[in-house]
Write a structure and sequence with these properties.
It is built from nine helices and six strands. By secondary structure, the chain is of the alpha+beta class. A hairpin with a 3-residue loop joins β1 and β2.
Length: 231
């Protein structure tokens, strides 16, 4: 049984139609796992973006490996090196400086870069590293995020995602938050749907209230349908 598994792994490490399909599918899956959490946090680079980045990186490595075997020359890692440096344009695009408040998107940018690296490892046939790295990134972005929030001192600036009734004006919400010692900074409006509107709001926590207290207060504001932290 063990020898059979070794033969399968060896076969998948070779360049053939089956291994190409497995690598592309696995890269899409791993990228989707990482991007799913970013999508839930309402970040601009979500599941589909991470899927494409990871799959594209895998294809680059497959192409490099194909060129090496087909033409018997070249360096399969050379194309991959260009991905590592070139992914910076996506990472930079996901980082947002929100007025005087804070820089957002660093975790998303790091996730995109890591998704590209995972894609490269899967593309060259290093399945073990790709799978383990995906599990590690998923753990970091979900479980350690909660631990970080519990252990760190509350930030001066916080970012929240809200869904509120269409009749509620942002000025009214700002007044309610001001009464509680909070100040609205940048507002990033989302798509409006029938009956409610979405927005990502940066708020200044001038009195350093705990996140839980702030969240409970906002949930109690009339017209708020849903609220959660994005960072």
């Amino acid at each position: 049984m063990m020898s059979g598994a070794v033969e399968i792994i060896g076969y998948l490490e070779e360049l053939n139609l089956i291994s190409v399909c497995v690598r592309i599918f696995l890269s899409i899956l791993c990228g989707g796992i990482i991007g799913f959490e970013r999508g839930r946090a309402h970040q601009p680079a979500g599941m589909r973006t991470h899927m494409l980045v990871c799959m594209g990186s895998a294809i680059v490595m497959l192409t490099g490996q194909y060129m090496f075997y087909h033409f018997q020359s070249g360096d399969p890692a050379r194309l991959g090196a260009q991905v590592i440096s070139g992914i910076g344009f996506l990472g930079a695009g996901s980082i947002i400086t929100s007025g005087d408040s804070k820089i957002r998107g660093l975790t998303t940018a790091a996730g995109l870069w890591t998704a590209a690296c995972i894609g490269l490892s899967i593309g060259i046939g290093f399945y073990e590293a790709g799978i383990v790295a995906t599990l590690a990134v998923s753990l970091i972005m979900t479980q350690l995020k909660k631990l970080e929030y519990r252990r760190m001192v509350d930030d001066l600036w916080l970012s929240i995602y809200v869904e509120l009734d269409a009749a509620v004006m942002m000025g009214e919400l700002a007044e309610k938050l001001a009464e509680f010692g909070l100040e609205i900074g940048e507002v990033q409006p989302g798509k409006k749907r029938k009956g409610f509107q979405k927005a990502v709001i940066n708020i200044k926590n001038k009195e350093h209230k705990s996140r839980g207290v702030i969240l409970r207060y906002i949930q109690g504001v009339e017209g708020i349908q849903f609220v959660k932290y994005t960072s």
